[in-house]
Design a protein that fits this description.
Helices cover about 35% and strands about 20% of the residues. Helix 1 links the parallel strand 1 and strand 2. The protein is globular and about 70 Å long.
Length: about 500
Amino acid sequence: MQIDIIGSGFAGLVAACFLAKNGHEVHVHEKNEMVGGRARTFSVEGFTFDMGPSWYWMPDLIDKIFEDLGEKREDYITLERLDPSYRVFWNDRSYTDMPASMDALYRVFDDLEKDGGKKLKQFLDDAQIKYKVGTEKFLEKPGLSLLELIDVEVFKNFFKLDLFKSVEKDVCNRFESHKARSILRFPVLFLGEMPHRIPSLYTLMNYADLKLGTWYPKGGMQQLAQGLKKIAEKHGAVFHLNSPVTSFTCANGKVTDLHFEGVSKKVEQVVAGADYNFVEQQLIPKAYRRYSPEYWDKRKMAPSSLIYYLGVNKKLEGVEHHNLFFDEDLVEHGKQIYDQPDWPDSPLFYACVTSKTDPDVAPEGKENVFLLMPLAPDVEDNETLREKYLDIMLERMERHTGQSIRSHIIYKRSYCINDFKQDYNSYKGNAYGLANTLMQTANLKPKITSKLDNLVFCGQLTVPGPGVPPALISGKVAAKLVMKKAATLKKGH
């Protein structure tokens, strides 16, 4: 079967790998100049910047994708576990490092509150059950039937999954100190809702964070995209870069043609890994759309981001590879993302200094700095606002680390809502897909299938959801649906 894939983000890449390996003729059409979607990279003046994802979590799930393709991840990517995983800066001018060793981590929590280590061990034991059930029983389900959710182990552990308890309640019932609570709330910051509105099922992220660890793929996150591209090409997939799809022609319940700038192509089967809303609301003719603009407008979106890529002409002291600035109020920042969407008064933010681990991403004696501030999607975005918040972030970095940074910046580039829309056709300029609320989980997400018989979706706006491992798995789920359909057609003939 000839299969055309729109978009080469992680989901599209994995779909290409599985479908090409299964013997199909695969063509991948990518709008931008390189594969990887949000995980693109760029190099300038000796600095190399990952443009999007920078946390490599759940290495077991990523390794399994390679294994399912008959490959070994280590043949494509060299991983290094970071120790500490990250540093957290507080408003009392102190900081906490999160060690890779569990015994050391328990001691950190003992320092934060009485019996903190013991409490953390119990918390992570419970989170491990959620992680095991969540990753083994839910992640690879296409979300097409409620029967998919009927599973003995799910029922056996149903009450331990805490679907109807919030992350906030779970964490605050167990821990007393502000710092312990803040560390354990951190992974849900990017899930798209306040901790009191995210099901405690998602404390499985704490298990991924604290037990499975934070890793770095040498060369950056783009190496994961390049590895998958090599596998897809090994099986015959062809990549067409700088090749945005502009519209579909549809007839008799099927996509018949893809249109590019000045060129058209007949198609047999399409996998859409590009932004779901864009494909459904802009490329598909109205008669074949499953959802209305009102449906989309009511979706709860995860945040967008203000990102700055900075080249600094000296080595920075007092920072690690990953740094979280939790020196302002999470709840207040969250309200200005989710409740009264606006630019935050006092933001939390994240600084990644990749050159602390990888000397190849910056010239000798210099530092590669990536700053990210979560931001409500679809708010006003302009250069004046970007610069204002860059100054806020740098002032706080300087204050906490006791050094000047602003006067040493020799390269600067910003990226925000307008860029997400321009480069990825991202709905409302979101960076992280749909919020992981209970009403947007599993079968309640936008369907992986379309009203069009030969179109399947994958990526962060459908099952299983946002994040690097879920996006990879989404590509596999979409590919399996297409392969099942192809096998049925072949049998019928």
